[in-house]
Amino acid sequence: MEDFIEQMRNDHREFDKGNLEGYFGNEPFDLFTKWYSDAFISQPEPNAFVLSTAGLNNFPSSRILYLKELLDKKFIFYTNYKSQKGKELHLNPKAGMLFFWPGLQRQVRIEGIVEKVSEEISNDYFKSRPRGSQIGAWASSQSEFLNDRSDLEKNVEKYAKKFPRGVPRPPHWGGYELTPLLIEFWQGRPSRLHDRIIFEWYGNEWKAYRKNP
Ligand SMILES: Cc1cc2nc3c(=O)[nH]c(=O)nc-3n(C[C@H](O)[C@H](O)[C@H](O)COP(=O)(O)O)c2cc1C
């Protein structure tokens, strides 16, 4: 057997960095904020998460994005509305978000309903981006077939000329907000007896319960 396969099979590392013993809040945002701040000071790419969507064909598709804000208990990220994920969210506005902070042996799984943020919020954020990224948002038809990289570079030149000073936000680029209906906190524990605490939204309140690991 290849060495690395052998190593994968024999890697029985322990999870021993903490626990959620006795933890039951009334709502999940305090704990999310606490875990996020722990990740922020100790983990690479703390705001990177996996976004999973599924369009009409029901095939899930996943990719990494950056969380940009947690506003009014909604998780905000930015992308191209015409991208694959944008099209899928248009057809089916349900999505999963997954954060993994390996050094803390924690994952947070979020499921919810996604909507576009207001134009003002998207405009404000777009303005704060570096010029190169702003031009890129015009130049790249995200997720569309690209015949040759030079076509993309030509597009960059074209929009750099078109917008010599300020770059307006392209109408196809902006934010989404995910309103969570479920948030699961997972803390690794020894012998695979991990802690899982799930907060589920029941229309007017959060209920917390445990699941077997
Ligand atoms: C660390 C990291 C952060 C990323 N952040 C974003 C992001 O915030 N917005 C975005 O549209 N794509 C981001 N991407 C690129 C996406 O993973 C993906 O390739 C792109 O959005 C196209 O996805 P789609 O074709 O499924 O729509 C990021 C990729 C990585 C690896």
Question: What is the structure about, briefly put?
Answer:
By secondary structure, this protein is α+β, with helices and mostly antiparallel strands. 29% of the residues lie in helices and 33% in strands. Strands 1, 2, 3, 4, 5, 6, 7, 8 and 9 form a nine-stranded antiparallel β-sheet that branches.
Overview of the structural elements:
The chain is α+β, with helices and mostly antiparallel strands. The chain has one domain (14-130, 171-210): Electron Transport, Fmn-binding Protein, Chain A (Pnp Oxidase, Chain A). Helix content is 29%, strand content 33%. The chain contains six helices and nine strands; from the N terminus they run ααββββαββαααβββ. Strands 1, 2, 3, 4, 5, 6, 7, 8 and 9 form a nine-stranded antiparallel β-sheet that branches. Bound molecules: flavin mononucleotide. Flavin mononucleotide binds at residues 45, 48, 61, 63-66, 77-80, 83-85, 142-143. Flavin mononucleotide (FMN) binds at residues 45, 48, 61, 63-66, 77-80, 83-85, 142-143.
